[in-house]
Write a structure and sequence with these properties.
Number of strands: 5
Strand order of the largest sheet: 1-2-3
Structural class: mainly alpha
Number of domains: 2
CATH architecture of the largest domain: 3-Layer(aba) Sandwich
Radius of gyration: 22 Å
Shape: globular
Distance between the termini: 29 Å
Largest sheet: 3 strands, parallel
Oligomer: single chain
CATH class of the largest domain: Alpha Beta
Length: 335
C-alpha cells in the first residue's frame, strides 16, 4: 500500500520557472505516481509575511490554477486550501501544549531572522511575529492531521519534518499513540536553485525571473535578455558556467542537452542560437498549460469547486485524527 504523501506551497507570488523546477514539477510527478497524495495551498503560512488580502486571494488562485493547468488530477490527488481545514488549527493548539519552547528557538527560520536583526544592530526579535516563531508547529499540524507518512522536501526543509517527528513523539508519549511519525523524502531537484537572467539566483525580488505562464512573445523577449559574455560563436565555451545551458538542461531531453553541451565545448554554438533553443524548450513545456491557466484564472469558480471538493475529502481524515487527539487528552470526541 502506498504511503500517505503530503506537500504544500505558499501563495506568496506568481510562480516562475525556478519554483517549477524546485517544487512544482516534483510535486506533480509524485502526485502522478502515487495514490495517497495530499497537496495544499498553504495560505495561513503566507500570512506571516503578507499583509495585502487581495494579493493573498489572487496568489492562492494562481497557485491552484498553476497545478491544474500543469496536469494535476484533482480526482486522484487531495487538493485543497489549508484555510478550509479548521481541524488543522485546533490541532495546532494541542501540539503547542506539548512542544518545548527550546525546539522553536532552534528553528532555522527563526534563527535566521534573529541573526539578521543582530547583524543590523536591531533588537533581536524586531519584526518577528509569533506566526514565524511557531511556524514549525503549524506545519506539523498540516502533516499530522492527514496522518502523512512521507514528506518530500529540499535540504533546507528537512528540519521541519524532523521537528514534526519530535512533536508527534511528545504527544504520543505524553498521552497515547495517535500520530504516525512522518519521514522526509529528499527531492533531487527539491530546492534546486536556478540562475536568473543575470546569473544570480532566480528571484522576483531581483527582477531576473521567467514566469511560468506568459505570452509567447514576452517569454522569448525575456530569454533573449539573458546576460552572456563576449565570446564569439566559434569559440569554445564552458556550458557549466553558462546560464542558457543551465536552464536548458532542466527543460530539454537528455539527447538535446548533450548536443548543446558538445556544441558549446567544441565551438560553433552562438548564444543567439542557444537562446532560441531554450525558448523553444520552454515553449514546448508551457505554451498549452498557459492557455489552460488563463482559462482557470478567467473563471475562478471552477477552482473554488475543485478546492472545495478536495477540502471535503481532507476533512474526513482530519476530523478522525482530531477526534482521536481530543479523546487522548481528555476532551470530547467529535461526533
Amino acid at each position: 500500500m502506498d504511503k500517505v504523501i503530503l506537500s504544500g506551497i505558499k501563495p506568496t507570488d506568481a510562480p516562475h520557472i525556478g519554483n517549477y523546477i524546485g517544487m512544482i514539477r516534483p510535486a506533480l510527478q509524485l502526485a502522478a505516481a502515487h495514490k495517497n497524495v495530499y497537496l495544499f495551498n498553504a495560505d495561513y503560512h503566507a500570512l506571516n509575511m503578507m499583509r495585502d488580502p487581495k494579493a493573498l486571494k489572487h496568489h492562492s488562485y494562481q497557485i491552484a490554477a498553476c497545478f491544474l493547468a500543469l496536469g494535476l488530477d484533482p480526482g486522484k490527488t487531495v487538493f485543497y486550501n489549508q484555510s478550509d481545514i479548521p481541524e488543522i488549527f485546533e490541532l495546532t493548539q494541542m501540539l503547542c501544549s506539548v512542544t518545548p519552547k527550546g525546539l522553536m528557538d532552534r528553528a532555522h527560520s527563526y534563527k535566521a531572522s534573529v541573526d539578521k536583526n543582530r547583524e543590523e544592530g536591531r533588537d533581536v526579535d524586531a519584526d518577528i511575529n509569533m506566526g514565524l516563531y511557531t511556524y514549525p508547529i503549524l506545519m506539523t499540524a498540516d502533516i499530522l492531521v492527514a496522518q502523512a507518512e512521507l514528506i518530500p522536501v529540499g535540504k533546507d526543509q528537512v528540519q521541519h519534518v524532523e521537528f514534526a517527528r519530535d512533536i508527534a513523539g511528545y504527544f504520543n508519549n505524553t498521552f497515547s499513540p495517535v500520530f504516525k511519525l512522518p519521514e522526509y523524502k529528499l527531492e533531487e531537484t527539491g530546492g534546486a536553485i536556478l540562475p536568473g537572467l543575470d546569473g544570480r539566483k532566480m528571484s522576483k525580488s531581483y527582477g531576473n525571473h521567467i514566469p511560468v505562464f506568459m505570452d509567447s512573445k514576452a517569454r522569448r523577449k525575456l530569454v533573449m535578455k539573458i546576460v552572456t559574455d563576449s565570446k564569439l560563436p566559434a569559440e569554445s565555451k564552458n556550458p557549466d558556467d553558462n546560464v542558457i545551458f543551465q536552464l536548458y538542461s532542466h527543460f530539454a531531453g537528455s539527447n538535446e542537452v548533450a548536443a548543446m553541451r558538445a556544441d558549446f565545448e567544441r565551438g560553433g554554438m552562438g548564444y543567439g542560437d542557444a537562446k532560441q533553443k531554450l525558448f523553444e524548450a520552454l515553449e514546448l513545456t508551457f505554451e498549452k498549460p498557459t492557455q489552460l491557466y488563463n482559462d482557470y484564472m478567467a473563471d475562478t469558480r471552477k477552482i473554488d469547486e475543485l478546492l472545495a471538493a478536495g477540502a471535503e475529502k481532507a476533512r474526513k481524515v482530519a476530523r478522525e485524527t482530531l477526534s482521536a487527539a481530543r479523546e487522548a487528552v481528555g476532551l470530547k470526541a467529535l461526533r
